[in-house]
User: Fold ABC transporter domain-containing protein from marine sediment metagenome.
Amino acid sequence: WIRPCAGKTTTIKCLCRLLNPTSGKIHIDGFDVIKNPRIAYEKAAAVLEGNRNIYWRMSTKENLKLFAGLQGYSYKQVKNKIEELVEIFGLQGKINTEARFLSRGMQQKLAIACALIKNTKILFLDEPTLGLDVEAIYEVRNLLKGKISSEGKTIFLSSHNMGVVEDVCKRVIIINHGKIVADEEIKKIKELFRVNTYRFEIEGKIGEQIKKEFLKRFLGVRFSTDESKTEIIIDLKDSIRIYEVLEILKKRGVKLINIQNIEPDFEEIYLELVKREK
Assistant:
């Protein structure tokens, strides 16, 4: 994850050797691509930010054939591959439609399909869900988690959409003002920030006296109430203190509907990591 304007597109362009880095080293699959720029082209494919990764006045099929041809493949060689990609990306009904007439989501799916024609082990995706509606984001996320990742490809994804990063990626690098503030598997980062936060769902509304008792005995207590129930969210240093909560509720004659342990929110984790570096 890289925050907006932190240089994520520039980073990917350097990795692809579309730009020359001002310092540092770049290795892809063990090869120094600064000394051997051709390696970057051979080892990786990319879809950059924006919607101009495809040719707008060419149809879906023509774009796929063109990008195959740029790799030295004849249509006969990749005919089955094109048909497979068209089916996977749900482009069957748009096969002869010019790219400029496709929806933004369809254009992005076509761009990713064109990158996959190259059949490299590494795929760079720069903000692949930027500007897409909710349905299109959902479809692209499923494609990245499903077929593409199952082929054993490494997907290098840049995004400031926390939901996409958490849902798609196994490992995350967070960059703030050009400095790496985290580099770890998402699962491990969430474990580091795990607190014993619990949601207690109570039947009906609770009185001010009960609220005061909770606020006196616990830190980080939040209440929310609707017509039929009340939710109490509490950060507990020790999960054994759940029994204290239950004791209060029982003493006050309050009916408990449900208890739930709340997972740490990845967006909150990011904000905490960035705040530490200021």
User: Anything to note?
Assistant: DSSP finds eleven helices and eleven strands in the chain. The CA atoms of residues 218 and 260 lie 17 Å apart.
